[in-house]
Amino acid sequence: MVKIKHIMRTLLFCMLLFTYTLHAQYSVTGGRGTPYEVIDDTANRLKVYLVYGMENVELKYSSSSTSHKWFRYKTNALEAEAVASTQAGTQSVVDRPEEGYGYFVEEAGQLSRFIWIIDYSRYVVDMQDFYVEKPENACTELWFNGKIVMEPMYYSLPATGLRRELEREFELTYNTLEWSEEGKQFSPKTNTERTGNPLRHILSPPPLTDTEFRLAGDLYARHFDVEQSITTPFFETVAIETHADTTMVSSFGTNLVSDGEKLSAPVTIRFSGYANSPVASLYIWKIWNNDTPDDVLIRYTGEEVSYTFEKGGTYTALLEVGDRTGACVDATKTFEIKITESMLDVPNVFSPGVSPGVNDEFKVAYKSIVSFKGWIFNRSGVEMFRWTDPSLGWDGKKGGKYVPPGVYFYVIEAKGADGESYLKKGDINIIRSKRIQDAIIEEE
Are residues 147 and 104 part of one domain? Predict the structure, then answer.
């Protein structure tokens, strides 16, 4: 029979949970400062308030009814007990509430929402010691240690009696550096992180500069103006952050044939590394051909290095950066450089002076040519032009004047980055109408 009555009471209570007064409201006053509403759990119709000291604390309830019945519970509302209150019209007051209890009002067979009261003055944090715990993997994360005393604060859900701990929140402030890709540099930055338990907090990534860590809180104490703070000893970091980029130093003419992602030799590339100095103090660039990775072509100690690729193939450039203690090394920045096979193609006709910018210069088309010599002769064997840079060409002039249209002859010797040798001979046809030819010659 007792069990049946308990079940019926539980069912009745659950029904009342869904028929609570909609237009009623609570207010909490008293203690030091303003009471702090820290939780509004709509699913359980529960609000949790912090007060600082129970002196003059009042719980007030307002509704359209003039008959309020106050109750309080420790575990769940089914086991609530009545408490005395003072009714004044449509308001009622519990003038001596106790902390660590939930309170609610019943009126006209309906339940109000629930409020739970915690006296925060009994749970203020005591920060006694705080310092950085450097783990073996200090390159990627930091821990903290010390002595911070904080008693847990609990409240209970009215329907189930489930006890929950009120979560605290602290602020951890420290200096670090921030990378600007646009400016290619690091600049100072102050970081603030929030944590529920400083002694279980893992900081990842660690700061990029030496710094102190300031712990402040908890944030409930800030509300009541009793916040504490503590600062660690000055910490020397070992974490490094690396950035790198490349710049093509060589310049080529418009007759260089593109080969997708591949580059044409000879090509000089400048490799630049950036890291959070002075923590990062050792820079090493390594470059090798992927076909012979054990044969390092260059090993350079410094933030920046230029290298000229003169042979075809696929290469890797690696930057290694180490911190001043040798504890951390970042070797994640790599570049793949592809040098295309050589090619040399020679045209057989052009029209100097006819259409500026359109086929008005004799130029070879090429890829990865590392050495070049060329000559042009007329029918009598007289040299008209010679050049050693494949990106240049002949404008069809001799002594500052256009040569007559007709057939000329070229000889070209070249060598490719892949070892290919070229010897090309042939004729060139200069095309120009007499009218255009006479006009140009007369102008000059």
Answer: no
In a domain, 104, yes or no: yes
Planar angle of CA 427, 394, 392, nearest 5 degrees = 115
Question: pTM for the full model?
Answer: 0.75
CATH number reported for the structural domain that contains residue 57 in this entry: 2.60.40
SS3 per residue for 229-289: EEECCCECCCCCCEEEEEEECCCCCCCECCECCEECCCEEEEEEEEECCCCEEEEEEEEEE
10-residue mean pLDDT series, the chain (444 residues)? 40 44 78 95 95 95 91 93 94 93 90 93 96 88 95 95 95 97 96 94 95 96 95 96 90 63 86 96 96 93 93 93 94 92 91 83 91 95 94 92 93 91 94 59 39
Q: Which residue has the tokens 């821990």?
A: 143
- Are both 328 and 362 inside the same structural domain? no
Range of the domain at 143: 126-154+167-231
Torsion of CA 364, 370, 373, 374, to 10 degrees: 0
In the chain, the N- to C-terminal Cα span, in Å, equals 124
Cα four-point dihedral sign 192, 193, 199, 205: negative
Residue closest to 201 by CA, chosen among 126, 144, 255, 258 = 144
Instruction: Say which DSSP state 341 is in.
Output: P
3 state SS of 148: strand
Same domain, 208 and 273: no
> By C-alpha distance, which of 40, 47, 45, 41 is closest to 17?
45
Split into its structural domains, the chain has a count of 4
- CA neighbor of 284 nearest in space, from 318, 253, 260, 307: 318
- Give the residue from 185, 203, 231 where a domain finishes: 231
Residue 160 lies in a domain: no
pLDDT at 194: 95
